[in-house]
Amino acid sequence: MARRIGWADTVVLLGYLLLALWILRDLWADPAGRWLHNPLDQGFFQAMMAHGERVVFHGDAPLHTTRLNAPVGVNLMANTSMLAVSIPLAPVTHLYGPAVTVAVVTTLALAGTAAAWWWLLSRHLVVSRVAAGIGGLWAGFAPGFVAHANGQPNLASGYVAPFIVWQVIRLREPGRIWRGGALLGVLVAVGVFVNEEFLLILAIALGLFTALYAVFTRPPVRAFLAGLAVAALVAGALLAYPLHVQFLGPGHYRGVPFRLDQYATPVASIAAFPRNSLAGSDAVARRLSGGSVLEDATFWGPGICLMVVVAVVLLRRSAAARALALTGLVLLVMSFGSQLRLTRTTSIGPAPLGFTLRVPLLDLVTTPRYALASTTIIGVLLALAADRVRRRGPVPAAPAARIAFWAGLAAALVPVLPLPLRTSAAPPVPPFFAQGIWRSYTQDDRSIVIVPLPAMVSGRDGMRIAALSHLDFPIPRGYFLGPADPPGDNAGTWFPKTRFTVDLLEQVRRTGLVPELTAEQHRSVLADLRYWRAGIVVVLPSAPNGAGLRRVLTQVLGPPLRVGGVTLWRMPAPVGPLRTDRQPPG
């Protein structure tokens, strides 16, 4: 089925790119000055893009950084660092900044995923260009993926999956054991450095599909299993050290600090319109699934649900299509979590596959994301059905039935077409950081304590400023996953063990109340600043209760300076060797 890319194909691919740019138009208007719906994750990925630039241009260790959570650092293998993306795009980050790179990554996540599925469909699975274009459109721009484009480009980046799928399919061909298995292993390794959670869900989907297809057709499996063994060996060799760092290295953790099915898929959300679409309603979506736009993994709309049923009927003679449909159904049920819910607050009873939450490895998957695989399968089924109708196969035979199919597909797709993602203005970066004035006030790789201290629920501006400064200086704390209190407690948390100064400043930030500090408390603050190897302490102009924060710090550090739009205090040089990122953790 291989063919050259013609003008029609170029139009389809250009259309994907233009649609992605349309969806992200507000972000592209000012990448460094606009927040998406999820500013915490947006700031995190800006920091990850800055880290990729440091790996390439400064020789930093790729799997661990002390630029965040100084001086201990962050295990980047245990967080979604997207090294397979940040390192190739390091020149973009170097020239234009990490905010632009995040906009590029998110655009390519949507358009690139659509293009990758279009390639697989048009080159290997269907004949009709129209069918391939429809399948790619849904696989890249379905509601769940557009929802994750709100600050989580890793979960919208499904462009590696089609190539993994194709290599798995080709393992059954003669002579593909070594070459095909090795290529599959390399693709799996690349997928790990894009998003491990998505890769695990893909592996589950492929395992289910392969098992069901084998039941329906009973094909020879010896060569297929041998190719998988080669893929496992190659992937294992490439990932042995990174996985060692992830699960045993500094900053490793166990479990996640939230209930996996906290935002499990409600049954009623499956046939509802997505909130960010032509027919969508934010109020309706909130009633069905709550306020988390990010976990709107389904919201396919009633028309798509109907067309999936039509597609399955049209393709009922195909063992592959039946296996695909059942795989999608199983994954959808897995996304229900432990309780079958009609809406976010209305429980029907225990979910059929709720026990999977307790299965090792699966106990790390956020349950609604299983439905993202079901969403992709819908795109493949729609493409296969459209190809059957386009080629005027045995079903349906009547022209009226073909017209009804295309009309129904159009009526299903148009209401769920995505609207541009909404953004809000981020606080301007003070000139102290934007113009690099900070370089005159600290040196020797000492940290800058940005107040409010960056964390899961507060201090997002500090994380963003550090990222937009290319992580040229270390900062204490940050937004990341790490161990609660190692080595005794390695449970995963967003809030590593606090120190006196963290609790003090957080209390003032929340309440505005400024306590009179004792001499012992003065010493505790100074001890924390020495631990962080602070060069300067900076209070941002956007800090809530900033006057209180400045007063409490003045009690300990004396009168501040006002430079470049910030309030700052200089610290004396710390005693002891400096820690850098130049060598990987032991």
UniProtKB/TrEMBL annotation:
GO molecular function, one term: transferase activity
Keywords for this protein: Membrane, Transferase, Transmembrane, Transmembrane helix
Coiled coil feature spans: none
Keyword Disulfide bond: no
Regions that span the bilayer: 95-120, 177-194, 200-216, 223-243, 297-316, 323-342, 370-389, 401-421
Protein's UniProt name: Glycosyl transferase
Organism: Paractinoplanes ferrugineus
